[in-house]
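4.2 Preliminary Data

To establish feasibility before requesting continued support, the project team ran the inverse folding procedure on a target of 349 residues. The structure was first converted into the token representation described in Section 3, and no sequence information of any kind was made available to the design step. The complete token record follows.
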């Protein structure tokens, strides 16, 4: 592998690390926050299934992100990923769960502005629309699932000890599904900008399977996300776990399942093809925010249960969602100027 490519890819790896540090809280934060799952268990399961989801099902959302802005040089991709990573890193430092999707979209728009490339408004509106629709959909799904689960629990007359065991197992399974969905949907945020300029080639493992060049790139990105999960996600898990509303173990399970379903809906090409083949409306394949999905689910359950919500934290988080793409776009635009005029690198063709 070319050493210069590894240098340029380092910003994508940094972004992947930042995503893992931030968004693992959205998968297992409620489980760890309610002390139903140990952090080490959550981190190991998250890492494994994030990589599987990224490699096996990550191409769908990355194609949509590529149409928003096809960054055609490694230097340009390096700076777009670095701008998004710096934005996310700063928010992680202050324990604020924000959207990696918004950060990379903002960075891509910053590159488009600097390169004089048009931003596809139809694609942008589709992505921005999911930023509004995602938490609402997650809240609705959470309420429906919670009502169903409460009905089943009341009808089953399960003992508290057995219910606790079932909930613990359910949280682990839901977290594995959530990690898979996160890898499938959000690997586009980490490595999507490098797809057009990557020099990587496919890897053949004999008669077992073959990884395409894009899948190799996504494998590297998935590993970087997993490192972020392992090394820096524990603190933020407690913020999501109980910062917005006090969660019971069952509420925690419902929140994780709801956000996992939402991420899967916006990442699965197979589901989209199935819906289209049967004449049904389908979800766009776009990288959505796991932060928005989990917070929407938590708020939905809290409102239904009549639990007091931490509106100050919710407002603080919403402000972060608004300014994240703006900051990322500004950082990317200004940094591209220095790359081109000080270091004389080709940032666009």
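Position-by-position output of the design step:
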């Amino acid at each position: 592998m070319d050493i210069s490519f590894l240098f340029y890819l380092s910003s994508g790896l940094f972004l992947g690390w930042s995503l893992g540090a931030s968004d693992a809280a959205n998968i297992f934060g409620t489980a760890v926050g309610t002390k139903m799952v140990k952090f080490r268990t959550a981190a190991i399961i998250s890492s494994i299934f994030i990589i599987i989801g990224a490699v096996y099902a990550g191409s769908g959302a990355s194609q949509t992100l590529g149409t928003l802005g096809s960054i055609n040089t490694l230097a340009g991709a390096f700076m777009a990923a670095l701008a998004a990573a710096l934005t996310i890193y700063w928010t992680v430092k202050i324990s604020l769960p924000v959207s990696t999707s918004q950060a990379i979209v903002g960075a891509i728009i910053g590159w488009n502005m600097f390169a004089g490339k048009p931003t596809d408004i139809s694609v942008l509106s589709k992505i921005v629309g999911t930023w509004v629709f995602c938490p609402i959909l997650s809240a609705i799904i959470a309420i429906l699932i919670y009502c169903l689960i409460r009905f089943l629990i009341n009808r089953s007359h399960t003992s508290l000890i057995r219910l606790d065991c079932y909930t613990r197992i359910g949280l682990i399974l839901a977290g594995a599904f959530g990690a898979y969905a996160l890898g499938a949907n959000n690997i586009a945020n980490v490595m999507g900008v490098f797809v057009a300029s990557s020099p990587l080639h496919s890897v053949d493992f004999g008669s077992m399977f073959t990884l395409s060049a894009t899948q190799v790139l996504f494998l590297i990105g998935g590993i970087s996300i997993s490192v972020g999960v392992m090394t820096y996600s524990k603190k933020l898990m407690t913020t999501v776990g109980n910062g917005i509303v006090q969660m019971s173990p069952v509420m925690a399970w419902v929140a994780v399942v709801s956000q996992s379903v939402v991420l899967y809906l916006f990442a699965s090409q197979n589901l989209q093809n199935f819906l289209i083949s049967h004449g049904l409306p389908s979800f766009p394949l776009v990288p959505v925010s796991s932060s928005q999905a989990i917070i929407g689910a938590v708020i939905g359950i809290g409102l239904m249960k009549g639990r007091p919500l931490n509106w100050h934290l919710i407002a603080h988080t919403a402000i972060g969602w608004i300014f994240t793409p703006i900051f990322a776009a500004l950082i990317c635009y200004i940094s591209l100027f220095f790359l081109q005029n000080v270091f004389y690198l080709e940032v666009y063709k």
